[in-house]
Design a protein that fits this description.
The chain is an alpha/beta fold. It contains nine helices and five strands. The protein has a five-stranded parallel sheet with strand order 2-1-3-4-5, sandwiched between helices. The longest helix has 32 residues. The protein starts with 5 loop residues before the first strand and ends in a 12-residue tail after the last helix. 29% of the residues are buried.
Length: 212
């Protein structure tokens, strides 16, 4: 179950911080406000989707430094920069490092809200894909080594006879493994097996061949 998204806002100007929090609340999203990068890091836990609206220049650790630190920690939290002191080099660096927006103050509230909603939707989708991938991988992990060998070959479109020859088993044994693995995974067709394996890899099957 994916947690409700949270929009984190970081700005050392109390009036701007309050405005950002009100804008986020107005579009129906939960908000967590911090006056510095350090305060944000103390409160932030990567336990669900969201995005970060971040001022470039804040006391202590700068917004750019926070972006680099989050990236180094493997964070995928989308970042939207807002700043009153923008320059082209700074904007290019931020976007190259994965920022999904760079707005100058005074920003248009509607534009910021649209970027926040877009970033949150993207992050929710990413969390959902990771959750589906973990679930599919966990299901496949239930298979015995022998069942996994058969499953891989079934997914590749090989017939029971071909699998038996490759694994030096009888066709009846392959049929038994195939029936057990399908039951263990809670699926009923090769198409579903291919889809499950694709999900475990974090993707989706481009073309699923007909039943083998």
């Amino acid at each position: 179950m994916i947690a409700e998204p949270v929009v984190y806002v970081v700005d050392d100007d109390p009036a701007i911080l309050r405005l950002l929090a009100e804008l986020v609340a107005a579009i129906g999203l939960d908000v967590a406000a911090s006056a510095s990068a350090e305060e944000f890091l103390e409160a932030y836990h990567a336990c669900g989707p969201g995005c970060l609206v971040l001022d470039v220049r804040v006391p202590g650790m700068s917004g750019m430094e926070l972006q680099r630190q989050l990236a180094a920690a493997g964070s995928t939290l989308p970042i939207i920069f807002v700043t009153g002191h923008a320059d082209v080099r700074m904007a290019v660096e931020a976007m190259e490092r994965g920022a999904c927006g760079f707005l100058e103050k005074p920003f248009r509230p509607q534009e910021l809200c649209e970027k926040i909603q877009s970033a949150v939707r993207r992050d929710v989708d990413a969390w959902r894909r990771r959750e589906e991938q973990a679930g599919a991988a966990a299901r496949l992990a239930r298979l015995t080594p022998a069942e996994r060998k058969v499953a891989d070959r079934v997914a590749a479109g090989k017939t029971n006879k071909m699998i038996a020859q490759e694994l030096f088993l009888s066709t009846r044994t392959v049929e038994a493994h195939r029936a057990r693995l399908m039951h263990r995974l809670g699926i009923g067709s090769r198409t579903e097996l291919v889809g499950l394996m694709a999900a475990a890899r974090g993707g989706s099957p481009a073309n699923v061949a007909s039943e083998g």
